[in-house]
Write a structure and sequence with these properties.
about 110 residues, mainly alpha, 2 helices
Length: about 110
């Protein structure tokens, strides 16, 4: 079938994919998923933030005065800690919303 200038060739038939030939993705136990790495990283940041606050409280209870540099570091640490907790809360909210959407679709 000749194709003339300005004409489009006929579209090929849509490809069909058999689901029986698609192998499920498998991750080895040594390779954590991206989500797992993210949650692990958030957990480490929360622990680090708690440690910063705990150390500052322990220092003040021991009667030690914190200098300006230590107070600025504490402020930055608490800010970072609060941001991580906020991000974790958003992540949990989004995940629970997505699970609810999936369940409603069944």
């Amino acid at each position: 079938m000749p194709i003339h200038l300005g004409e489009r060739p006929p579209a090929p038939p849509p490809a069909t994919v058999s689901t029986s030939t698609i192998a499920p993705s498998r991750t080895t136990p040594t390779e954590p998923s991206a989500f797992s790495r993210l949650v692990s990283s958030l957990g480490k940041e929360v622990q680090r933030g708690e440690e910063v606050v705990r150390d500052a409280v322990a220092a003040t209870h021991a009667g030690r005065d914190l200098g300006a540099t230590e107070l600025l570091a504490l402020q930055a640490g608490v800010y970072r800690y609060s941001e991580v907790v906020d991000l974790a809360a958003k992540l949990v909210d989004r995940a629970s919303s997505d699970v609810k959407t999936v369940i409603q679709g069944q």
